[in-house]
Design a protein that fits this description.
2 domains, 12 helices, 4-stranded antiparallel β-sheet, 19% strand, Carbamate kinase
Length: 348
Amino acid sequence: MRRCANIVAKDSSLGLVIISATYNTTNLLEEICSLTSLEAGASSALAKNLVDRHSSMAKELGLNAEQLKDYAYEAEKLLTSITPIELSKSCDPRQKDLILSWGERVSSFLFYCVLENLLDQERQMSWLDACDYIATDSSFGLAKPLTEKIKYRVESIIKKPFEGGELFVTQGFIGRDELGNVTTLGREGSDYSAALFAQALEALEVQIWTDVNGIFECDPNIVAHARKIPYMSYDQATRMAKSGAKVLFGKTLSPLREQQIPVFVRNSQEPLDEGSLISFKPFQGKDLLSVCIKKRSDGLIVTLIGENVDMIEIEQSEIDRGEEFRSFFIPGNDECETLNLWYTRYFS
């Protein structure tokens, strides 16, 4: 949080920051929802542990007494939301989305506090509730954004101060339906939230800050010698995301493509690295762009992506193909071994 806050504080061109939940928090919140039908008090106990973990983080980040008081208020919201599902021993989709939203709410508040202590006092900054802007339908767990309503809300409230240099911090992943219920956009949906805000604000660019130096030919956490792709088109990046590339959420690029807003994927641990650029310009000159893997209950789906992928002889059984991609089914579940094998065979 400190590292990312320093990046934001040093760049006056940044106007809106979208924050995800802290590591593993959403998984734990899902576990809280699933424990309601089991041992009495199990959900509350796990929720308290989660609150305590963030309380320790708040103190370590140096929040002042007033900020800690506000954090305690946010923490109490989670504990209160657990009570009805424990009493009924069930958690419906509406209740689940409300509980899952806590991760982004508390992480964005903590980030806001850290950033507040770094910023020049002359720069205005506000913490926003994303639910007030990201209007959705009532498809809990995978809500569909209502883009015209989002645009109206953003334009009427924050676009002018945004263009005037005010800085806003808000949450990814969450929204609100027309009945006032909290909704979620699907796992890893924070990038999607950023795209929706950027579309409504007509932003000049979007920056996605992660823990790798951009987008690679395959997962660099599995294949250490994978090469970075310096630039690619929206279509190429979308195909990678849908095929299993973890650095992007599948729906992220659609709102940005419509308004030709470029996306930079960069590493918060190495902020001077240029990262990867996603725009209308496709990466060309090589037969293959990337290899991606998705897990399935009975095996793995390996997808090769590239402008000349049709020219490559592959003996595996093909299950799908389209413009510039081919997918194959591989029995077994050893993702690391399979990805290393395919990368070595077709990219080395």
